[in-house]
Amino acid sequence: MTVYIDLVCIINFIYDFLILLTVSFTLKRNRKIYYYILSSLIGVLSIFLLFLKINNIILFLLKILISIIMVIVA
Questions:
Q1: What average pLDDT does range 24-31 have in this prediction?
Q2: pLDDT for 52 beyond 90
Q3: What is the three-state SS of 7-73?
Q4: What are the angstrom distances between the C-alpha of 24 and each of 7, 8, 18, 34, 73?
């Protein structure tokens, strides 16, 4: 089975963007849309961490760190 990294990144970007936008509407926050786009682009970086040869615990901690950065930006 062939997995295309560009499609995985685009799908991840869309999911991150929709989750951030949904939470924003639920919490009734009025922010500019480009904050959510920037935060979703930061979330795409977590896909590239999967291709690094690092320990699972460090990978988990890096994903938590990227999630926290996404929330701060959004």
A1: 87
A2: no
A3: HHHHHHHHHHHHHHHHHHHHCCCCCCHHHHHHHHHHHHHHHHHHHCCCCHHHHHHHHHHHHHHHHHH
A4: 26, 24, 10, 13, 12
From CA 36, how far away is CA 59, in angstroms rounded? Answer: 24
Residue with tokens 């996404």: 70
Predicted local confidence at residue 15, as pLDDT: 94
pTM check: above 0.90: no
Phi, psi of 4 (to 5 degrees): -95, 125
